[in-house]
Amino acid sequence: MFKEVLRRSAVGAVFGVTLSQLIAIVISLCIADGNFYAVVPSLTERMNSEVSAAIVQIVCSFLYGAVFGGMSMVWELDNWSILKQTIVHFSVVSVVTMPIAYINEWMHHSILGAIIYFAIFGVSYAFIWLSQYIAMKKRIDEMNKKVVEMV
Q: What average pLDDT does the segment 45-60 reach?
């Protein structure tokens, strides 16, 4: 199981960096002034260079993706309830998300900024979780229907 967590973490890390760069490209295309915006300007200012800011963001994206990838193993712990799996997964990814968002200047550095960011994260997490739950339930119901038809 440890090897699988490491494998998923590695895949997640690559995915995290890739997604981060794709988001930067999309934002740059939306601004449409011919420049590439690798990071938010406030991070560049804090780091005193765009290269340093980009390195910080890439390292954070790497860690972010690795945690999400590794934590995907939680969903395969059949001896845990869906509630326990969800609480553990949400707790761990939240603990990782907040400092990374803060470091990368993805949120305002204030209590209100943290609350708003966490609310957006929580709603997004709930929406994705619910859509996955509904899709999985539908597949299970279809499999159960086929089993009943076979009997």
A: 96
